[in-house]
Amino acid sequence: MAATWEESVTSSINTIYLLFSAYLVFVMQLGFAMLCAGSVRAKNAMNIMLTNVVDAVVGSLSFYLFGFAFAFGEGSNSNPFIGTNFFALKDIPSSSTYDYSFFLFQWAFAIAVAGITSGSIAERTQFSAYLIFSCFLSGFVYPVVVHWVWSASGWLNPSSTSFLLFGSGSIDFAGSGVVHLVGGIAGLWGSFIEGPRVGRFDAFGKAIPIRGHNATLVVLGTFLLWFGWFGFNPGSFNKILVAYPDTTDEGNWTAVGRTAVVTTLAGSTAGIVTLFGRRLLVGHWDALDVCNGVLGGFVAITSGCAVVEPWAAVVCGFFAAWVLIGLNILALKLQFDDPLEATQLHGGCGAWGLIFTGLFAKEEFVVQAYDSGVVGTSRPYGLVMGGGWGLLGAQVVEVLVIIGWVSLTMGPLFFILHTLNVLRISVDDEIAGLDVSSHGGRAYVHTDENQTRFYAEYVRMEDEGS
Length: 466
What we know:
There is one protein chain. The chain is mainly α. It is 65% helix and 0% strand. The chain has 15 helices and no strands. The protein has helices at 5-39, 45-72, 100-120, 127-150, 176-194, 215-232, 252-282, 287-301, 310-333, 342-360, 363-371, 390-419, 427-432, 434-439, 447-465. Helix 4 runs antiparallel to helix 12 (390-419), helix 8 packs across helix 9 and helix 10 (342-360) runs antiparallel to helix 12 (390-419).
């Protein structure tokens, strides 16, 4: 039967909303690129920029061919572990399930995961290794987790009609676990197997700071990521024109606005706490630490952004900052080297975000997000809010199974690459810099060369003046 005019308009608006959200999430790739470039030394700037491009293009093809099918393929017999159809977008668009705009939105998420992991192994990794792990991560490892949590037949899905873990399912609305914890744990194994960069720790195990070369790029990247997060979190509603039946003036449009506010509050709180926390620890105000603090707050709130009150977002950001600070201290004690703190930031804050949701999710918002505001619906919600242990238990299970799954898949992959000598570059190449050793030249004139030229010109002018 042909759709009515009202149905067509509603569908069009929802499609435009989802596409615009996908475009915002894709802007985050630029944010990742700027953040990564500024956080590494100048001699590796071209390399890290290229890896960000590779993550996007390789991830696009692998997600198109396999990833989307593994993530959302339902098939005739629903599989709670992995999808079984829609390979290479066969039978898409499907009138009963997905269309191209939904694929594009999910694709933007998939390529972000590989970018997280790339940061953990920056400045010391062979370029061929990026091609291999990026394809495997975005085409298989990540999509399987997506299927568990976001597919209608997934065993962790909170909207499943056949099985709800602990009567609740796991609430990971925009991916603190699905996206960030997956990327963080993959980066953990890559960085651990490779070992620290040359000169990161001295012979006595004391950490030697290796600062990124451009704070401007780091700040620019942070604001681009902040902008993109307004597609990442609010966009995960997928539809904006969904009215709640128990009210005349509220629907997804209300929740979308609240989600954007909650996201901002969590990131801002984490940023300010990190600012003062690091000031107490290191004795000075550090813009780069604040940027990572802001991002840590965003990562943490991503799970529960649609189901918590604004005041709870402040709580989320406060503890996210201390999770990040604490894990960074622990990383130094263990001589673990992650140039972008991606493991600590995305992994640690992502795990905290899942636990936070199990504690502070509000029942009304849970019903709105997962049952479209159906009157009389009841389901487990946050423990602190009086909702019992069901949701928190499901959140803990998600944390554990993601850590286990990514460890069992990405850990062996990095180990095999390391054994075959295709993971880490040589010491000489690392000291020279990847731009010169692998990419034919520097991204721009090296800072030391600029200083030398400036000094030579200064001496010449002094001589002429005398």
